[in-house]
Amino acid sequence: MLALGVDIGGTNARAAVVDQAGGRVVVSAKEPLADRSPDGIASVIHSLVERVGRGHPVAGAPIGVGLAGMLREDVVVNAPNLGWRDVEFGGRLARRLGRPVRLVNDLSAAAWGELKGGAARGATDVFTVFVGTGVGSALVAGGRLVTGATGVAGEFGHVKLVAEGGRACGCGQLGCLEAYVGGARLQAWMSEAGVAGTPADLERLAHEGEAVAKGLYDYAVGHLALAIANQVTVLNPEVVVLGGGVLTRCPGMVQRITDVVAARASVAARQPLRIRLAELGDDSGLVGAALLAIG
Hints:
By secondary structure, this protein is α/β, with parallel strands linked by helices. The protein is 40% helix and 24% strand. The chain contains 11 helices and 13 strands. It has helices at 38-53, 90-97, 106-117, 178-181, 183-193, 199-207, 211-235, 245-249, 251-264, 267-270, 284-293, and strands at 2-8, 12-19, 24-32, 63-67, 70-72, 75-79, 84-88, 101-105, 126-131, 135-141, 144-145, 239-243, 274-277. The strands form 3 sheets. The chain has a 5-stranded mixed sheet with strand order 3-2-1-4-8, with helices on both faces. Strands 11-10-9-12-13 form a 5-stranded mixed sheet, sandwiched between helices. Strands 5-6-7 form a 3-stranded antiparallel sheet. The protein starts with a strand and ends with a helix.
């Protein structure tokens, strides 16, 4: 049996046909998002689904769509990367495609993909954190995805590091974790501080002892690691899955997180814990979205 998944990123959209049994991507395709309006992105998804569906028995099959943003059923409440606020997108896309659509947060999709076919396979309680352009997370408890009372549970990137003020975040608020350690905001902070390069360059310079880089790195990564340790204490997960472009390219961040969790999470909560790097790479969201669409 086959399923359909879509991942809407900041610059591209991807679609895939996925094998339900093992979470394997059978075929995938990608297109750039030249027009980021809801109708523009719906058009891109329609084209992608037509391409990947050729020659596969997926006509009329439901489709899962992962999107970075706060969602309330079919409504995109806030998608900073796309500049959307309160956009009814799920129904619009279903009408365009002529098939059922399940709209899911991109990290919820990634977490489900890693649960079913990746680093958290076989677990029932998982906390997933991806640090890429932004910071996102998702929680699986008792084998079920936790969505919260209004569907926005897991917005880990928007926990606050300071009580008042702080750096501006793409969500429109101040002092969010994402405003300090999300790739795009971290790079802007680096530029302001006179540190050239990417987060990977920041890590290298910090480890070489460059004072400005080390101060910025220690603040950002220290707060990320402590925030994850606190979530381990609260959630008591079996597995923490770490992924996203920044963490993938910055092994020192992963080690800092591991060390801080070992030192600062409660002893009872960290005893059964395994910290794993995501295994499915860019496919985790596609796989998870497809599998969530079929329930």
